Amino acid sequence: MIKKQHIWIIPIMMLMLIPAIQAKAESSLSVQSTTVLNIREGPSLDDSIIGKMEIGTSYKVLTDNGDWLKIDLGNGQAGWVAAYLVTKSEGSSNDAPNTQTDSVTASEGTISENGLRLRKGPGTEYQVITTLSKDTPVTILSNEGDWAEIQTALGTGWVNSQYIIGGAQTTSDTTDVSQTDGQTAIVADDDINVRDTASLNGVVIGKLAKGTVIHIVAEDGDWAKIQFSGNTGWVSKTLLTEDSEVENISAKPIDASVTILHDGTNIRSEASVQASVLSIASEGDSFKATEEIGDWYKIELADGQAGYVASWIVSESAEKQTAPSSQDSNKTGDLKGKTIVIDPGHGGKDSGTIGAVGTLEKTLTIRTANLLAKKLQAAGSNVVMTRQNDFFISLQDRVNMSSFYKADAFISIHYDSIKDSSVRGMTSYYYSSSQKELANSLHENIIEATQLKDRGVRKNDYFVLRENTQPATLLELGYLSNQQEEALVSSQKYQETVSAAIYEGLESYFQ
């Protein structure tokens, strides 16, 4: 009898151990994200936001219920994140890349340029975590060749050490990079290579045609760092000639009033889209303009400062204009509370098409998306971006986000390409009849605002449309394979214009 009791005790003990085994397995799971995510009090979009998930930081998973994960925030706190928006990995969250190398004493520094890519390892072949802005403070943890491991508010990763000011940098094998005052030059030969570093060993990221006017922002020995089609890269100075025909634009004194046309308009410190933003203006705000500098107005701000605003996003009058009527104000209200999912096409390993002079579609789509997002956020819309940086997102994940957030409108942004370089224009697409109205509304406003060749609204079997249960459209906003149109759609003027047109198309759709 006693022996039989022992036999029954063993399986009972095994059953008691199962939860412990499961808990142990679960505790070894951690998650990480390539974008800033909301951390919520409970496993639902209706629960309150209690924090943000930092890019590149690993969090220990406490509970996995399928759609939502409960994560350890430290200090005894926990929160919930959507499971499909994060990357799961086995191993403790303590394995995250935030430990300091013993051989190097940590030191402080700042980033020297905008858009610097923070990577998971010391090289361009590693995945991009996020991008850093100029003057971002960093802590340097270690160095490996020309690369530095740094800690930032957005996470820990690696950047090329030549773009860090101050701190422990490895610079003995590199020449000093000198900044320039935005001088211009002309490409002297056809199909010259643009590289990601100032070396023939650098990866070719684009090509430039003979006669292209480029802006030099820095120099490194025989190399020039240039801005082209919204990108930056390095070219040999021997392949450039001085641009004697490009003269400095002089300021023209004026006495006028300018009125802002769109919410979320940037007022900058200088007459350049690269200048820092002093303030954000709303639709209907009026300012006294004192000078006209090319495509920019110098204006007087309320605090007495001088600021600059692009001429294509304001209207000018001799007398100060009044604020918009209540009827106009109600138009903005149509977007308030609407959930708009913006899908910048491609990203990460998927560059999309590459333009005639090297524009990357994935770079251009995120520029357009960010401008549109700012306008919608200023109008009170709930904006969801399928990607906020240069990383790869599957088509299924893009559709999942549309469904998860119950999008009132899903807008996939793209730029087109074809072998025939003479083709130009824009096309809008839908799949189901329920999506056609959204496509028509946006298309009409874009054609009117941009004056691109109208290639029509068409039905197409695109995955993000076919599998989407929400109102959705895919926009091809011009042909990068046409050199003239590539230059047009890459300009800041076009980017502002087309993002404003999409905004206005959404207003019309929701009315």
Written account of the structure:
It is a single chain. This protein has 511 residues and is α+β, with helices and mostly antiparallel strands. It has five domains: 76 residues, SH3 Domains (SH3 type barrels), CATH 2.30.30.40; 59 residues, SH3 Domains (SH3 type barrels, Roll); 58 residues, SH3 type barrels (Roll), CATH 2.30.30; 73 residues, Roll (SH3 type barrels); 183 residues, 3-Layer(aba) Sandwich (Aminopeptidase), CATH 3.40.630. The protein contains eight helices and 34 strands. A hairpin with a 2-residue loop joins strand 11 and strand 12.
Shape: globular
Overall pLDDT: 77
Q: Which structural class do you get from the secondary structure elements?
A: alpha+beta
CATH class of the largest domain: Alpha Beta
Going by CATH, the architecture of the largest domain would be 3-Layer(aba) Sandwich
Q: Assign the CATH superfamily of the largest domain.
A: Zn-dependent exopeptidases
CA-based gyration radius: 26 Å
Assembly status:
single chain
- The unreliable regions are 17-27, 92-105, 168-175, 244-248, 318-333
What is the number of E strands?
Answer: 34
CATH fold-level label of the largest domain: Aminopeptidase
How would you summarize the topology of this molecule?
Layout lengths: L1 H26 L1 E4 L4 E4 L8 E5 L5 E6 L3 E7 L2 E6 L4 E4 L16 E5 L4 E4 L8 E5 L4 E8 L2 E6 L2 E6 L3 E2 L12 E10 L4 E4 L8 E5 L4 E8 L2 E6 L2 E6 L3 E3 L9 E9 L4 E4 L8 E5 L4 E8 L2 E5 L5 E5 L3 E4 L8 H8 L5 E6 L16 H18 L3 E4 L9 H10 L4 E8 L9 E5 L2 H18 L3 E6 L3 H4 L5 E8 L3 H8 L1 H19 L1
Parallel strand pairs: 29-30, 29-31, 31-34, 32-33
Antiparallel strand pairs: 1-4, 1-7, 2-3, 4-5, 5-6, 8-11, 8-14, 9-10, 11-12, 12-13, 15-18, 15-21, 16-17, 18-19, 19-20, 22-25, 22-28, 23-24, 25-26, 26-27, 32-34
Helix pairs in contact: 3-8, 5-8
